[in-house]
Amino acid sequence: MPVSTKICGLSTPEALGAAIAGGASHVGFVFFPPSPRHLSFDRAAALASLLPSHVRAVGVFVDPDDDTIGQAVTTGRLDAVQLHRTSPDRTAHIRRLSARETWAAVAVKARADLHAAGHYVGAADRILYDAKTPDGAALPGGMGMRFDWALLDGSSHPLPWVLSGGLDPNNVGEAIRRTGAPIVDVSSGVESAPGVKDVDKIAAFLQAVRRS
């Protein structure tokens, strides 16, 4: 079965166009002011209006309040929400509030971290395994960090899942072969600078996924 791809942190029509042309199944819009990829609701809506029906828009949030979720879903034209640093109870509430497919990020550094995924059964629709960032880091992801993919060996995933963290055009093929990930997610790995997407890197990443 072909592997799906989410290109995250898009902010320009050019980058969005490269993701669509290359065959991305999902695109991510970040709603988190400390991030260099942060978008206003109106900007996200303008980009979402350019999407064909087969490409899904995912809003990315860090433990958001109800108002932020409500505005983003209604104004930003989102198909799904992706939550970082958000408890299972809060995730379940946001899932009900947004009435959208909900992805829960699980930060991974050691095998024991994978156990957190089970707590999201009934609260989320999908798990996103991401690399755990250092304590005190302002951002929960998008820092080019990866975790040891061997930690996933033999894992029984409680929900459909996504592999994220430190992926780029050079390693995504290996990541897919190593983990069997059904969806891969990239942000900083297709940038020329923080928050600046590189259309050639986007194309190369998507090509590498298709070859895997």
Walk me through what this model shows.
The chain is an alpha/beta fold and 212 residues long. It has one domain: Alpha-Beta Barrel (TIM Barrel). Helices cover 29% and strands 22% of the residues. The protein has an eight-stranded parallel β-sheet. A two-stranded antiparallel ribbon has the order 9-10. Helix 1 runs parallel beside helix 6 and helix 2 packs parallel to helix 3. The protein starts with a strand and ends with a helix. The model has no long low-confidence stretch (mean pLDDT 94).
Low-confidence regions: none
The helix tally amounts to 6
Question: Average pLDDT across residues?
Answer: 94
Structural class estimated from helices and strands? alpha/beta
- CATH topology value: TIM Barrel
Domain module count: 1
Helix content: 25-40%
Question: What string gives the helices and strands in order?
Answer: EHEHEHEHEEEHEEEH
The CATH homologous superfamily name equals Aldolase class I
**Spatial strand order of the main sheet:** 7-6-5-4-3-2-1-8
Question: How many distinct beta strands?
Answer: 10
Q: What is the assembly state of the chains in this entry?
A: single chain
CATH architecture: Alpha-Beta Barrel
Pathway: Amino-acid biosynthesis; L-tryptophan biosynthesis; L-tryptophan from chorismate: step 3/5
EC number: 5.3.1.24
Enzyme class: isomerase
Catalytic activity: N-(5-phospho-beta-D-ribosyl)anthranilate = 1-(2-carboxyphenylamino)-1-deoxy-D-ribulose 5-phosphate
